[in-house]
Amino acid sequence: MTLGERQRLFGGLLGKLLVHIYESGYEVSVDWAYRPPDVAAYYAQIGVGIRNSLHIKKLAVDLNLFLDGKWLRDTAAHKGFGEWWEKQHQLCRWGGRWNDGNHYEVRDD
């Protein structure tokens, strides 16, 4: 599968995730979607990210989850949505598996 095909897969699945979240009574704001390589390198340098982030390839997004206007910052709040995400396609991976609960991605391997 080409990078472009993966990006389009990710876009379609992300749309379904957002609908699922809203239909479940939650809301989101988009935190990080695309991350420039220099920003990813800086984040890796300060220990809050990785240099080869899938955000660079437009295959990942970080979503801030809200319920009744309250920002749910912890990984546990995303668990149900993360597990749902992983079931959508064999390439879907949820960041909660490494304590980055608001991160949703399509693998590039």
Walk me through this protein's architecture.
The chain has 109 residues and is an alpha+beta fold. The protein contains three helices and five strands. Strands 1, 2, 3, 4 and 5 form a five-stranded antiparallel beta sheet that branches.
Key features?
109 residues, alpha+beta, 3 helices, globular
Shape descriptor reads globular
Largest sheet: 5 strands, antiparallel
Q: What amount of the residues lies in strands?
A: 15-25%
Give the ordered list of helices and strands.
Answer: HEHEEHEE
Gyration radius from CA atoms, angstroms: 14 Å
Which regions are unreliable across 5 or more consecutive residues at pLDDT < 50? none
Mean pLDDT, all residues: 94
Q: How many helices does DSSP assign?
A: 3
Assembly type of the chains comes to: single chain
Structure classification: alpha+beta
C-alpha end-to-end distance: 10 Å
Strand count: 5
**How much helical structure, as a percent, in the residues?**
25-40%
Summarize the entry for a quick read.
This protein is α+β, with helices and mostly antiparallel strands and 109 residues long. It has helices at residues 3-23, 37-46, 75-86, and strands at 27-30, 60-67, 70-72, 92-94, 103-106.
Task: Set out the fold topology.
Layout lengths: L2 H21 L3 E4 L6 H10 L13 E8 L2 E3 L2 H12 L5 E3 L8 E4 L3
Antiparallel strand pairs: 1-2, 2-3, 2-5, 4-5
